[in-house]
Amino acid sequence: MKQIDVKQKVLNRHQEVAQQLCRRFDSAAVLAINIMGSPGCGKTALLEIAASRLADSCRTVVLEGDLQTDNDAQRVCAAGLRAYQINTDSACHLDALMVERSLKLNKINLDDLDLLVIENVGNLVCPAGFDLGEHCRIVMSSLPEGFDKPAKYPRMFYKADCVLLNKIDLLGVLDFDKDAFWRFVEQVAPKAARFEISCKTGTGTDAWLDWLRQRKRSPSETRD
Amino acid sequence: MAILCLRVLTFDGAQTVHEMSVATGIMNVLHSKLSKLASCRLTALQLSLGELSGIDRDSLCFALDTLLADADYNGVEIRFELTPATFKCSVCNWQGRLESFALTCPECAGQDLDIIAGQDVTLEGIEVE
Fold first, then answer.
1. In a domain, B89, yes or no
2. B115 touches chain A (CB under 8 A)
3. Which residue segment(s) compose the domain that B75 sits in?
4. Which of A127, A183, B68, B103 gives a 20 to 30 Å CA spacing to A89?
5. Which phi and psi (to 5°) does residue B105 adopt?
6. What does the pLDDT look like over A15-44, one tens digit per residue?
7. Is any Cβ of chain A less than 8 angstroms from the Cβ of B103?
8. With contact defined as beta carbons under 8 Å apart, do A133 and A168 qualify?
9. Contacts of residue A84 in chain B, CB cutoff 8 Å?
10. How many domains does chain B have?
11. What interface predicted TM-score (ipTM) does this complex get?
12. Do residues B103 and B91 touch, judged by C-beta distance below 8 A?
């Protein structure tokens, strides 16, 4: 019997591709953002409500990650943005290889873009483990999910650049401890920008877009 | 205005649930390593699993067993060791474990902690005969 040292991280290839993607985004001066959150928290609704303002202010492409259907790409296209669907079949997250392949197969020229929005597969666990080369990690939660999600899923919120609390219009309806939610966020993502929004009424979405515009000015400075 | 650009890109085969993705990654590393060796039989894998890797050990084991059998590696023992989550404070350089994921430095109460270990899955070594 012979023992052989390997000492190789299993997802090294993904990390290499993520770094390559980030360099490509930087050289094309494209801000890449990765929006993550539970299924149904409102990620696509945010893009719909922000679509016209994004389309007016910057050249945007959206990559939509879902296991099946192109429903979300259709919704975002209908709202006025260029969107391409990535179906992961049964994978619970996007990875850098998928993003790279989508950019290539859809002939997305980064030099023609200002903003690349990657909407990850709805999931509070697995997407946290896969770097997509993005500059900004945006994590969305919503009132119906309960206020303790940042405590239960800390790795998702850790290193978030921005935490969005959506469906804030339901505050008087649901038993949601907003202060406790933000205390949990403070524990795991103390530096994250925080916005309370409603993709139904539009509350808070202008403030979030203003924050995004600020990030747009220097994407290469925003990546940790 | 509707912009129609709905080419759907589908990933199949190699990418399935999270643990299967990782198991596929392990197999890729394994194939690469074994292809450089003279004819031998794989008998064991040694993996380290980060506490924060988000990987369920039993699910990964099940996925690996399936892929190993598919690739005609039979009777391979899979051994795991857990890598604890380790943090480092960028203010005072404290390093260590935290009792919870509340990211506050126990030494200086700084809030700029980085994870320096415990996020990865690593193929540490193999045994062949």
1. yes
2. yes
3. 18-33+40-128
4. B68
5. -65, 125
6. 899 999 999 999 999 999 999 999 999 999
7. yes
8. no
9. 5-7, 9
10. 1
11. 0.79
12. no
